[in-house]
Amino acid sequence: MKSFQYFIVFIAIIIGGCSNGIETEEQYIEIQKRIGDENKYEDLREITDNEQVQNVKKIVDDIVWETAKVNMVRPADYKFVFIYKNPDIQVKVVLYELWISPNNEQVELVIGAASQYIQLGKDESAELFEILTSGKLSDQ
Question: Could you tell me which residue ranges the YhfM-like domain spans (predicted)?
């Protein structure tokens, strides 16, 4: 009987140690698209599929950001934010602004609050854009 109790405690420790609070919470991404030439945005979509959320998270987490205060010639084409939600609180963590390059091959990302900037490569740009908008970057 005592070995069974140790086994239950062991399993409880393993399960508790492997769980991360953020993974058990609802996590999604809100995306907005600029309308017209002004700094006005409309809700485009929410990504609630965990695999897609994690793919976007991996892309932005793997970026080696440049510290730079940028002054873009136009407002961002898109804005997106990760939202972590549990029954007690809803938290918006970081606002990402996304610009499409003139040749529609790459995207530039800015985290304005942290003065962070990056221009993604063509493959990463296409992947990120497709997940966020359900469209092809080359069709823009």
Answer: 29-134
- Contacts of residues 133-137 at CB distance under 8 Å and 24 or more positions apart, as own/partner, are 133/31, 133/33, 133/44, 133/45, 133/78, 134/45, 137/100, 137/104, 137/105, 137/106, 137/107
Where are the chain's structural domains? 26-139
User: Is 50 exceeded by the pLDDT of residue 22?
Assistant: no
What CATH number belongs to 26-139? 2.60.40.4400
Sequence-ordered list of residues with C-beta below 8 angstroms from that of 118, at least 6 positions apart, any chain: 63, 64, 65, 66, 108, 109
Q: To the nearest 10°, the Cα dihedral for 41, 39, 116, 128? A: 40
> Does the pLDDT value for residue 10 go beyond 70?
no
pTM, whole model, 2 decimals? 0.77
